[in-house]
Automatic annotation (TrEMBL):
It comes from the Bacteria. This is Inner membrane protein YjgN. The gene is yjgN. The chain crosses the membrane at residues 30-50, 80-97, 103-125, 146-169, 199-219, 226-244, 264-285. Keywords: Membrane, Transmembrane, Transmembrane helix. It holds the Pfam family DUF898. InterPro entries: DUF898 (IPR010295).
Length: 333
């Protein structure tokens, strides 16, 4: 009998770990920041729309992964329109208090009804104005979804004496992530309610220790605030790791490794520098925090990453600029 011929096996895709990096410099951003402030003052706030776009374009363009930087695509005029509408509404609201209480009540009701829509459109606008390798992000959040997750679910917390808080936060984050898209692919959250309860229980433990520390004369006054702030930092860092580290995109995974103590050190030394420099240290602090966040994030993908992004770009090319300006205006609110 002839020996069976072995079939050649297809080569396995090689997995790569792509480190996020932030290449911005404090000196570079300071020039942008100070010009933004001066022109915003001179133009009585009108330039603030351009200032926002310049700032976002610098931070997006300085954030890279797999050799490619992110892009911020918003037009300052879109943002300015939204801010002018918001300002007109606030002026009308302020004047109505003095001259027409009935109109004031109507405007408050309009604002309450419109709030979920404003939030949903703002999230969608920010997503669509973000891109990587010429492929846009997108968000499918809806007015009803925002109303349910951010206005109804929080009402459960006081009725459960706070016990439902981790579940509510988890539901909110899951809703945002699973409605976020890159091209035509949707992000998939893999974090669980148990992850959030574990995180919040640790933070609650620190708060209990903070309360008990007051039993120590004098020292408790110093220890308690530190423990409370540590609990807040723990939640912030933990949520960063859960949201970014436990979300997938069509086989692309992420690894988040932020730690509480380094985060606290950067955060509080940033505040100290800003205070000592009367605010002039803000650009340095912003660049420093952006670099730290990037250093804590890795994208895990195989050799198909290039073909994946090329495919997404081809799928999106037909969309062009067909999005209506009305939603972009609303995002400015």
């Amino acid at each position: 009998m002839e020996a069976a011929t072995s079939q050649p096996t297809a080569p396995q895709a090689q997995v790569h770990h792509h480190q996020f990096e932030f290449t911005g410099k404090a000196g570079e951003f300071f020039k942008i920041w100070i010009v933004n402030i001066l022109l915003t003052i001179v133009t009585l706030g009108i330039y603030s729309a351009w200032a926002k776009v310049r700032t976002n374009r610098y931070f997006y363009g300085s954030t890279k992964v797999a050799g490619s930087a992110f892009s911020y695509l918003a037009d300052p005029i879109q943002i300015l329109k939204g801010r002018l509408i918001a300002m007109a509404f606030l002026i009308a609201l302020s004047l109505s208090i003095e001259f027409s209480p009935a109109l004031y009540g109507i405007l408050i009701l309009v604002l309450l009804v419109a709030t979920p829509w404003i939030i949903a459109r703002g999230i969608s606008f920010n997503a669509r104005m973000s891109a990587w390798r010429n492929v846009r992000f997108n968000s499918k959040v809806t007015m009803g979804g925002v109303f349910l997750h951010f206005m109804v679910l929080p009402l459960v917390v006081p009725f459960t004496m706070g016990l439902a808080a981790p579940w509510v936060v988890q539901e909110q984050k899951k809703y945002l992530v699973k409605n976020y898209e890159f091209g035509n692919e949707t992000f998939e959250p893999t974090f669980t309610t148990g992850d959030f309860y574990s995180l919040y229980l640790k933070a609650f433990g620190l708060m209990i220790l903070a309360g008990l520390s007051f039993l120590i004369p004098v020292a408790g006054v110093l220890i308690a605030p530190l423990l409370y702030l540590s609990a807040i930092a723990l939640i912030s860092v933990g949520q960063f790791n859960l949201i970014y580290g436990k979300s997938k995109l069509a086989g692309v995974q992420f690894e988040a490794s932020m730690e509480t103590l380094p985060f606290m050190w950067i955060y509080f030394t940033n505040l100290l520098v800003i205070a000592l420099t009367l605010g002039l240290g803000a650009p340095w602090a912003m660049v420093r925090m952006a670099k730290h966040r990037a250093d804590c994030l890795i994208m895990i993908a195989d050799d198909s990453l290039d073909s994946f992004t090329d495919h997404q770009q081809e799928q999106q090319s037909a969309l062009g600029e067909e999005m209506g300006d009305v939603f972009d205006v609303a995002a400015g609110l």
